[in-house]
Amino acid sequence: MSHETDGMSTAAPLRPLFRWTGGKRWLVPRLLALVPETYGRYYEPFLGGGALYFALRPRQARLGDKNLELINAYECIRDDPEQVGRLLRGMSRDETNYYRVRGQRPRARFRRAARTVYLTTLAFNGIYRVNKRGLFNVPFGGRDYPDLGSAEVLKGYAEALQGAELEATDFTATLRDAAAGDLVYLDPPYTVAHSNNGFLKYNAKIFLLEDQEKLAETASELAKRGCHVIVSNAFHASIGNLYRGFRAVEVRRRSVMAASADHRKEVTEYLFTTPLEDV
């Protein structure tokens, strides 16, 4: 079933609300160059910080991620940004309160959402990380962020999410009804820190090679349906071999996984896409 409406939006782009591990804010200009002039519904099953989504702000979208707290936060901001903002404005931003909030386990969905925004904003480097027990364990970052809980800021993200269906599920479920003319962006979890012999072993802790193979098969099936598919992935022979039917682009950037800018090395990643003339 094809989606007839044009999913493009004329709204101003937004920066990601969350600084998510593996986020693609740095890659957005390259990704935008691969987006077709018109498309139907937008699909992104590995949402994270949603850099491309918030840059495009499509009218219709299905967004997924396996992180329950992330999806809950986006849903609450979409549904009632005033309530999320009110809770955030009532939380002091000092180190003592940060660790107090970090140790809490609220059950109410809006309190959980406020906690997620609070912790990922004030945490060191703004990252989301949990230990083996699933407990958030990033130390305090030492910055104040006076806009935390700003009603105006949250309203902007709420508006950007109005046309989005959000779900915490597997990528295949998120993509279940993508159809001809739809835009699909796939950004699976991976790291390029160990790009040579250690790549497969290191990434098995993040996203198994079997998962990568399943994702590549899904991407090929979506392309056959007539979807426009964009994939960002690790620059490694095992990955390149999975996407032989796609147009491959190499992109380079400075690694952020170093103690200082002087020691950062250039790393390469892949972009795969269905050629624009084929969709």
Written description of the protein model:
The chain is an alpha/beta fold. Helix content is 34%, strand content 14%. The protein has a seven-stranded mixed sheet with strand order 3-2-1-4-5-7-6, sandwiched between helices. Helix 2 links the parallel strand 1 (42-44) and strand 2 (61-64). The two termini are 15 Å apart.
Question: Helical proportion?
Answer: 25-40%
| H and E order | HEHEHHHHHEHEHHEHEE
Please give the domain count.
2
Mean pLDDT: 88
CATH topology of the largest domain: Rossmann fold
Q: What gyration radius follows from the Cα positions, in whole Å?
A: 19 Å
User: How many strands, which pairing sense, and closed or not: the largest β-sheet?
Assistant: 7 strands, mixed
The amount of beta strand, in percent, is: 5-15%
CATH class of the largest domain: Alpha Beta
In short:
This protein has 279 residues and is of the alpha/beta class. The chain is 34% helix and 14% strand.
Overview features:
alpha/beta; 14% strand; single chain; Adenine-specific Methyltransferase, domain 2; 7 strands; 11 helices; Rossmann fold; 279 residues
How do the strands and helices of this protein lay out in sequence?
Blueprint: H1 28-32, E1 42-44, H2 51-56, E2 61-64, H3 68-79, H4 81-89, H5 95-102, H6 109-122, H7 151-160, E3 164-167, H8 171-174, E4 183-186, H9 199-203, H10 209-225, E5 228-234, H11 237-240, E6 247-254, E7 266-273
Parallel strand pairs: 1-2, 1-4, 2-3, 4-5
Antiparallel strand pairs: 5-7, 6-7
Helix pairs in contact: 3-4, 3-6, 3-7, 4-6, 4-7
